[in-house]
Amino acid sequence: MPSTQVQWNNCTVEVWQGDITTLAVDAIVNAANPWLAGGGGVDGAIHRRGGPVILQECQAIIRQRGNKPLEAGEAVITTGGQLPARYVIHTVGPVYREWTPQQAAERLAACYRNSLALLRQQGLRSIAFPGISTGAYGYPPEEACPIAVRTVREQLLTHNACDRLIFCTFSERDYQLYSLELTRQN
Ligand code: ADP
After folding, report:
1. Measured between alpha carbons, how far is residue 1 from residues 17, 85, 129, 141, 176 in Å?
2. Contact 167, 112 (CB under 8 A)
């Protein structure tokens, strides 16, 4: 598969198509739900492949927060269990229909910003993002993609955030969408 690649502030940013749970990067990002309870889509795949340790750590995080769910846009980190990735950053995307388009865009951008902030705080240098909110949470991919790419670009140019960043797409259509957007914003 030919991959689209750009360099932003010494970080190689690429679009890749496939299953995020196979990627041996420092951290993969999970499109989690507010209770970090696991579920379908990419969340289900990560917990299945990573094993029960991830869910145990998620439950501990929720307990430490006084049994409060995460807000849309927040991010937390656990280890990667049996995944090839060392860590999982769990972020909660906005449910598209619950917000105005402006609010949804702000929350979605916060997911990418806060995930990259956690990566930096932990001293990690490579990360893979799925299309947060674009599955069950109903965010149209053609609206979410430019926000994801713009936010990542801004963060990478502001901070020397990492060495390698992957936009992991699942469908051929999303692969094309992200490839085009990466070229457009380069
Ligand atoms: P959300 O609830 O935030 O919408 P979903 O998991 O339903 O999250 O979907 C988010 C995106 O992740 C969708 O584009 C979906 O196609 C994609 N996806 C689902 N499974 C995987 C996987 N194993 N690896 C990478 N992306 C995946």
Report:
1. 8, 21, 18, 21, 12
2. no
**What's the 130 CA to ligand 1 centre distance in angstroms?**
6
The CATH fold assigned to 4-185 is Leucine Aminopeptidase, subunit E; domain 1 (3.40.220)
Specify the ligand 1 atom closest to the Cα of 168.
Answer: 25
Percentage of the chain lying above the pLDDT 70 cut? 99
Q: Ligand 1 pocket: which residues have CB below 6 Å? A: 19-21, 31, 41-43, 45, 93, 130-137, 168, 170, 174
Q: Is 43 annotated in the active site? A: yes
| pLDDT tens-place string over residues 13-66 | 999 999 999 999 999 999 999 999 999 999 999 999 999 999 999 999 999 999
**Ligand 1: residue whose CA is nearest its atom 10:** 135
Give this prediction's pTM. Answer: 0.98
Each domain of the chain, given as residue ranges in start order, spans 4-185
